[in-house]
């Protein structure tokens, strides 16, 4: 039996309740009524960093200081109820939620020019504590739907840099330098990086720099939720 068929069967036999109200959610994290609460991003977003713009394609910050990555897309803003779902996924190990949210990434991803998918790696100590990498779990449905290869151990997190919260942008940047290492060449490849949350973009920046120094031709970020400034 194919993995997709097994998936459909499990959804049918074990319907998961809506994250908010407990009603049948038909394979998604929320039922139809609660889905209107999803914090979908506004129409104008910077194609480079996924922050809102005033109608331009690229924001002023990315024009004046272009990041090491070429593009970013986020499915949602980092707000309720997606913020709560991500917390539940990360700290309560609700892997099923990763699958449901990962399917929502499939809907917003454009993989036409992508060669490989790379989930943002966790440091092995954190992986040991948590038991899974949420970015990898989120990326699985896309890897399956697109048929693109997913490189899981191609980049490793050599230093445990988190938590970054509460640090100034300059300190974050310094902390991250040399945080990642590639175990293979990315020469000529267009890479899609999948992660759960992008906050300042400092981690994505260092990750993209690492991929580029390993030869990547293009780096795009696919993010479940983007934190807006001031939140
Ligand atoms: Zn509901
Ligand atoms: Zn931007």
Strand content: 15-25%
Q: Which shape, going by the Cα principal axes? A: globular
Q: Please tell me the total number of domains.
A: 1
Distance between the termini: 45 Å
- Biggest sheet layout: 4 strands, parallel
CATH top-level class: Alpha Beta
Series of H and E elements: HHEHHEHHEHEEHE
Low-confidence segments, given as residue ranges, are none
Question: Under CATH, the topology is which?
Answer: Rossmann fold
Number of helices: 8
Would you tell me the structural class of the helices and strands? alpha/beta
Instruction: Report the strand count.
Output: 6
Q: Mean of the pLDDT scores?
A: 91
Notes on the protein architecture:
The protein is of the alpha/beta class and 231 residues long. It has helices spanning 3-13, 60-64, 82-92, 95-108, 124-130, 134-146, 169-176, 202-213, and strands spanning 71-77, 116-119, 155-157, 180-182, 190-198, 218-226. The strands form two sheets. Strands 1-6-5-2 form a four-stranded parallel beta sheet. β5, α8 and β6 (218-226) form a beta-alpha-beta unit. The structure holds zinc ion (2 copies).
């Amino acid at each position: 039996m194919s993995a997709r068929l097994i998936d459909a069967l499990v959804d049918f036999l074990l319907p998961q309740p809506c994250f908010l109200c407990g009603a049948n959610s038909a394979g998604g994290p929320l039922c139809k009524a609660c889905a209107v609460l999803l914090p979908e991003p506004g129409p104008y977003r910077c194609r480079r960093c996924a922050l809102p713009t005033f109608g331009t394609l690229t924001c002023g910050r990315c024009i004046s200081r272009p990041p090491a990555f070429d593009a970013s897309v986020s499915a949602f803003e980092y707000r309720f109820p997606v913020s709560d779902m991500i917390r539940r996924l990360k700290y309560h190990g609700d892997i099923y939620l990763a699958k449901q949210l990962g399917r929502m990434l499939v809907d917003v991803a454009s993989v036409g020019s992508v060669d490989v998918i790379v989930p943002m790696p966790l440091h092995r100590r954190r992986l040991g504590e948590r038991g899974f990498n949420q970015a990898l779990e989120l990326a699985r449905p896309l890897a399956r739907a697109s048929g693109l290869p997913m490189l899981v151990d191609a980049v490793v997190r050599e230093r445990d840099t988190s938590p970054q919260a509460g640090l100034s942008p300059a300190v974050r940047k310094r902390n991250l330098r040399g945080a990642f290492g590639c175990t293979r060449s990315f020469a000529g490849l267009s890479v899609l990086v999948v992660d759960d949350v992008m906050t300042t973009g400092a981690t994505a920046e260092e990750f993209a720099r690492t991929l580029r120094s390993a030869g990547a031709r293009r780096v795009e970020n696919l993010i479940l939720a983007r934190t807006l400034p001031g939140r």
